[in-house]
Write a structure and sequence with these properties.
This protein is of the alpha+beta class. The protein contains ten helices and 41 strands.
Length: 676
Amino acid sequence: MFLKKTNIILILAFSLTNFLFADDKGYARLEGDIFYVGNNKIERSFQWNNGNLVTLKVTDKINGKEWENRVKQADFFVPGQSEKDMKAGTWNIKRIEDNVSVPYTEVTVEYALEKLSIRRVFRIYDDCPAIGIDTYLKGKANKDWIVQKKDLGQWTYLPQRNIISQEPEIPVLDRMSFGGKHWKLELIEFTDNSDSHNTFVKHHSETAYHENVYKGNILFFGNMENDFGLFYLKESPLAPSQLAYPGADFIVRDGDVKTIGIGITATDLQGPDWIKTYSIVFGVSANDELSQLKALHSYHKSKATTESMVSMNTWGDRGALERLTEEFCFEQIGACAKLGISHFQLDWGWQEYSDYIDKDGTPIKKWTPKRSLFPNGFERVVTKGKEAGVEVCLYFVPNTKYDNEGWERDADDIINLYKKYGVRIFKIDGQQMQSKAAEIRTRKMYEKVMKETDYAVIFNYDITAGQRGGYFYLNDYGNMFIENRYTDFTSYYPYKTLRNAWMLSRYVPVEKIQVEFLNKWRNQDKYGEDMFAPDNYSMDYLFAITMAGQPLAFMDVADLPEKAFESPDIIKTYKSIQHDFHKGIILPIGDEPSGKSWTGFQSIDVNKGFLLILREFNTDNTAEIGTWLAKGTKVELTPVLGDGRKNRQTVKSNGNISIQLPNENSFVLYKYTILN
């Protein structure tokens, strides 16, 4: 849960001073011309170079591996900027204890290349084998950094059609160059805009050869000779939504990796303010999939906390907006309380606008409760929710005109709704970040809201359409709403929802994703004889699909029949273990959901965890499920929900355990304990 107070402990350490915290909490020190940052898991050492850092070595402290950087060039590269007559750079270190992430150490390095000032901020999280790097720029650049979009092909034998032919004009966020010619690359490219797409993860694997460019927000690169690996996470929107996008995210040749696409151009540097580029995260691990994924998710877990929710949203049933009355809210809140749903959210239609007039004569919206629906305002609705133990939440669309110029009025509307009614959770839809100015204003909106509400507000970020932050950008203050699916249009198929959550969970913290389940009794006639129609599943099963994420009842729950759930307390029982389930690293297990698979999720904690296993329309009553447990491990499985019996097993090869489920489209949620 988000905290209510912000504490920042600041300690400055200038360019000739050494200072460090305990290793497990992050440190920095300057010894002569060598600068070190790290913690108990990872260290990166640099030639100080007046602040224009050049990586010398990366140390994986867990696996006892040191990587020497072969190229003695600055990690951050800006075309056209000279090191001539550089002034001495400065650095400082501070401990951050805020309301968004777990406590961490922040190391800031500042320097200048001619008239361009550069700030590099290293975020070092406790006990985490990855370091985040944020870059800020201000001043004036010597070149415009524009990449000619001749063609976004990557064919080296057609140099005039290659990004690499324009490499000297492309800024580089970070660079590493390690020895050896035997490197395996795993590129992960993502898709959002789920109103138009239904496969959100694309995986590409190859061995590095020559110099090529690659798209993707995640790159795992492992040395095949010594079985140690490294990874980059690019914290940016996905490729179609990135600003100043050069056509790729990485340039790789053997063990040489450059991260490109910084998200700004030289012309964005207007005025005295620091302008933030896209960020990168660099981490170390052993060169096996589980180690890589644990390292990645360790960073995800460190970066942002997540409040446990089981929510209801009024949009899923596509009902008339006139139904959103005070009495309707009372009915839904009562039904939510009965089922155990913790949050009730009014979507589009609850609001009306004031008569502010924009500079071009058009009205500016000011979000207030619609008087014809809520003649008493929201006080009675919020009070009813508090009495029932159900938190009332709202839907909000920022004004995107003129590159989000009205960001401050939007922030004020949200702040007013929080202060007047106590509403603190807002679904943000319609967001557009089509320019750097729009993106900066979006960030300012979020930051103003958080600061003036003492970090109490939580956002549900809708990433279903438009140019938005996606899975890794500008979503630190809440969770993600990833798809609209409806029985009205026969676009809701349970196995497809499960497949999307399953595929994303490998690389994205699924506990930060709202996963929806719908009223299966609506629009049965539209599905006809479709074997995968929602009506062929129990409501217990539809809810189970969502349990690895943040369950979202995309419906008017008061319209469900009395015996909608076979297990009347399924949601309440789930809520009792939701925090512990989400505390672990959640990864997919079994086969990819297809409607006919054995599949599921594993939540991995120290010597314990959870296994959520689903049998789809599969004729076998017993299956060997591949997990992330090590061969020979003895485990005790205790059922929490679904069809299962307590048992003990020894894990077989490939992490396999034996699971029995008596019926098609059934599930079991086990809590497991490692016995040896």
